Amino acid sequence: MANWHIVAAYDEQAADWLAGHGYLHPRVRPGNSMPTPAEIEEAVRTLGLEPDVPLAIGDAGLPDSFAIRGDLVLELRLLRKLSERAGQLWLYPDCGSPAIVVDPATDPEAVATAWLRSLRADDPWAAFLGRVSNSEQAAKAVQTRD
User: Fold this and answer.
1) Tens of pLDDT along 72-95?
2) What is the DSSP letter of 2?
3) Which residues contact 27 (CB under 8 A, 6 or more apart)?
4) Any long-range contacts for 120-128 (C-beta under 8 Å, 24+ apart)?
5) Beta carbons within 10 angstroms of residue 47's beta carbon
6) What does the alpha-carbon distance between residue 145 and residue 50 come to, in Å, rounded to a whole number?
7) How far apart are CA 73 and CA 25, in angstroms?
8) How many CB atoms within 10 Å of residue 104?
9) Which DSSP category does 42 fall into?
10) Which long-range contacts (CB under 8 A, 24 or more apart) does 51-57 make?
11) Is the pLDDT of residue 9 over 90?
12) Is the dihedral of CA 145, 143, 137, 128 positive or negative?
């Protein structure tokens, strides 16, 4: 199994952190929340994940989050399913690899491929998320205030 990935609702704090580092990121949509344990169980059943599937879900030891580890494509499929009800979710690897924002439009295979490829780059975060310049960030900040 892989490292644990922390899952939380994607919020303004996460978006601000990404923006502060100059990483491209989606806007936070209203209504993002943590899925309930019942919703997680339902999504696992709906996806037909058997008990022997290499995917573990546990306590992250942090408020308003849970931890997941296993096959990245399976993780992303589960989170995409959960995002249909809970909104955008923020997957943050505990090993420092790039974070992933998951929503109902996420393509698990394509995202996993791009994420794994980015790990070979000098700056995996910039390789996966891309960067914006300081002037682009300043222009965006002005646009959001108008």
Assistant:
1) 999 999 999 999 999 999 999 988
2) -
3) 15
4) 124/97, 124/98, 125/21, 125/23, 125/98, 126/23, 127/98, 128/98, 128/100
5) 15
6) 48
7) 20
8) 12
9) H
10) 54/1, 56/1
11) yes
12) positive
Whole-prediction pTM: 0.85
Cβ(7)–Cβ(79) under 8 Å? Answer: yes
CB distance 102 to 91 below 8 Å: yes
Query: What residue has token string 């919020």?
Result: 11
d(CA 111, CA 55): 18
Q: In what order do the strands lie in the sheet with 5-9?
A: 55-58, 66-70, 5-9, 89-93, 100-102
The two tokens of residue 33 are 């929340």
* The two three-digit tokens of residue 87, written as one number: 């909104």
Backbone angles phi, psi at 25, to 5 degrees: -160, 155
In 10-136, DSSP assigns E strands to 55-58, 66-70, 89-93, 100-102
User: What is residue 2's predicted lDDT score, i.e. its pLDDT?
Assistant: 58
